[in-house]
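User: Second chain of the day. Same drill as before.
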Amino acid sequence: MKYHAPTHQFTVSAEELRRATHALCWAIKHIRLGHGLDPKGCERPGAMQHPDFAEAGIIDAARALGIDLGSDRPGQLDVSAAG
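Assistant: Same format as last time:
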C-alpha cells in the first residue's frame, strides 16, 4: 500500500489485495481447525459461537477493505486450501 500525498489517497496493488485475502482465509481456517470445525465450511444451527463471531469479524474487515471473500456469513467459505 502506498500513500499518494497530492490526492491524500492510498494505492493498493492487486498483489497486495491477493496476499491480504490469503491471510484472512488462513486465519478463518485456523480458527475453524482450533475449534474442531470443517475448513470446507458448514451450516451450524443455533446461536453463533466464538469461532462464528471471529469469522464474521474477518469477513466484515475484508468487506471494509473492498475484498469480497465470497460469502457474507460464517461457515459458508471453503478455506481448506488456505496455506
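The chain has a mean pLDDT of 93.

User: Great, on to the next one.
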